[in-house]
Specification:
about 325 residues, alpha/beta, TIM Barrel, about 15% strand
Amino acid sequence: MSLTLRGSMVALVTPFRNDAIDERALASLVERHVTAGTSALVPCGTTGESATLSHEEHDRVIDLTVQTARGRIPVIAGTGSNNTREAIRLTQHAKQAGADGALLISPYYNKPTQRGLYLHFQAIAEAVEIPIVLYNIASRTAVNIEPETFAQLAGIPNIVGVKEASGNLEQMSRILQMTKGKLALLSGDDALTLPVLSIGGTGVISVAANLVPQDVAAMVEAFQAGRHDEAIRWHQRLLPLVKALFLETNPIPVKTAMGLLGLIEAELRLPLCEMSEANVARLKTALQEYGLLTQQGSPSLEAGGSRLKAKTGASSLEPRT
């Protein structure tokens, strides 16, 4: 039981059409990432609107993602819940479907103690023999998983990583220090991917990779290959686009952007609703400046804009889509 947690992993959106899963569009997105250098697919997370999927839909998204990937790219299925028994059931299904790992958000709304968090994750890990990545995002769950709790959880063999979205680099450094390298640290925030890599992180579970998978992968690869100046230039190029993708609650902007680019229907489920006109205009500007949209609002044929030149002028990278 092994899972390499390294590189750019996409927090995959769930495309809808007429309030149902758009299976054709989902399969197309999976194929796109297989060829774009994405390191893993992460369906049914926050970006995948798991909170508004029925249990049957949740299972279907994971089934279809695994079936389309066909082992060419790992699938880390979102299986978290604030109900431990439900999380076990979802994780069991992910394993049966052939997922390579599971992403488990900390329980939301219940506000468990740190001991409750430990017991929750321990119960799931003992019930299902699958690599588990913990997801810490107190802004959505109301409870932070403390570094001391991660240190305890690191003793459970199939808990192998953490998607950290606290925004707190000191906390992330302490997690790495206290878990003694047992847990891979993944950025849960596109804007902090490069800083997280710099303190010992191994990759990102990225929202922006839904739009520009090759660019996010190129940034991570450049850093890990020791080409730090190049990684910084990718970071600076991506930052305005990343900022635009969080003008409103994720995944509203990214699905709106993907709709503008013709990748999916920009359909959301309540309580998420369409973007305000003012923010759509700001999003379009960011997409145009990146080179993804023409000034007329059509998807750019280049879909990535001008080349990112190396400082020496000896090499260049094509921004990717």
